[in-house]
Amino acid sequence: MAGFVNVRRDVDDKFYRYRMPVLLTKIEGKGNGIKTVVPNMSDVARALSRPPTYPTKFFGSELGAQTSVDEKNDRYIVNGAHDARRLRELLDAFIDKFVLCGSCKNPETDLIVTKNEMIVRDCKACGERTGVDMRHRLSTYIIKNPPKKKNKASKGGHAEAPSPSGEANGAVGAGENDEAETGDDDEMTKRIKAEALVLNPESQLADEGWSADTSSDAVKARVGAISAGVANLGLSGGGDDESDEDADSPYTQLGNWVKENAGVNAVEVFKKVQDLGIEKKHKAVQVLAQTLFTSDIITEIPDYIPVFQKMVTSEKHQKSMLGGIERLAGVEYPDLIAVIPKILMEFYQADVLEEDVLTSWGTHVSKKYVDKETSRKVRKASEPFLKWLAEAEDDDDDDED
């Protein structure tokens, strides 16, 4: 039975939490048909939170050898005879280039392929996003075969590596967004943004009665409504362990603090959330989406993307965030309903909101966060973006066919 080694083999601490199985090799065939099989490649890759095809292709690239992958039968082969020591050295090189954080050297990272086809290592330990060597042949393969999305319910989670005794030893496989990587928009993105830009309160939305009453009485009423909304944030989200229905709840404190410190930077926002002990709570995401932004949200979003990338770790978080956006646009700044497509696009491109969640949200009117009519208006305004999502998915399916 194979033993276990530290993911970073330069670390000799026997209590180092990141462990992986020792890479095994088996020589098969002879003559021109000789090949090296890696029987436990799947186990090694799982401990690194990488697809097993990545290290296999890396070996082939470094050795100048052809590789064969049979995922169905769990066989990963490198042509030629290669001893285990050499492949373990190459595995260390793969870990250094495509697993370890470029900043803190922690292996708890995820590979992310950005919209402009760059690859970054997103570190869950220090929060930094560091690039990989895009000149390496494996980078081209990763772009064409990006990592599959994690299960939404466990986004950012990592399986524990088994100990030699077969029990979990707390070792977390390297595993997933803080400043957003943005590049040139493709044509479809440009088109949806252009469509969103022409939407305004005087357009069809206004014709359907979606324009805002800007009289002083109406403004006062909306301010009162949003203040009441902040005071009762605990009633609109539901589901957290503690009771939030009083003015002293951490969510009310957070909402009031953000309002009192308008323009505060992202680092201070996250520090405040941590101080309140709610950095993992989905309702905290709702509060921030509802209170951090003003009517100038499109220019403000990039400043706070790191906060949401850090805190939005599940489908429930995403739904709460969308609820906060509904309240922001539907109650406090009704004029923002016209730019809902642009708002959703910004968060989607930053990998904060996922396609499946957005599609489901767009087709189900809800009165959980706002009244039903306002919910309907927000979703109606989002239709150009949702249509673009559907068309982009269809294009991807056509390409695969």
TrEMBL record:
GO BP term (any one): formation of cytoplasmic translation initiation complex
The keyword rRNA-binding is annotated on this UniProt entry: no
Organism: Russula ochroleuca
A GO CC term assigned to this protein in UniProt: cytosol
Record-linked SUPFAM superfamilies: ARM repeat (SSF48371), Translation initiation factor 2 beta, aIF2beta, N-terminal domain (SSF100966), Zinc-binding domain of translation initiation factor 2 beta (SSF75689)
Family: Belongs to the eIF-2-beta/eIF-5 family.
Pfam families in alphabetical order: eIF-5_eIF-2B, W2
Name of the protein in question: Eukaryotic translation initiation factor 5
Keywords on record: GTP-binding, Initiation factor, Nucleotide-binding, Protein biosynthesis
Organism ancestry: Eukaryota, Fungi, Dikarya, Basidiomycota, Agaricomycotina
Bias (Acidic residues): 176-187
Region described as Disordered: 137-187
Domain W2: start-end pairs: 241-399
Biased composition (Basic residues): 146-155
PROSITE patterns documented for this protein: W2
Superkingdom of the organism of origin: Eukaryota
Feature: compositional bias, Low complexity: 166-175
CDD domains: W2_eIF5
SMART domains (alphabetical): eIF2B_5, eIF5C
GO molecular-function terms, A-Z: eukaryotic initiation factor eIF2 binding; GDP-dissociation inhibitor activity; GTP binding; translation initiation factor activity
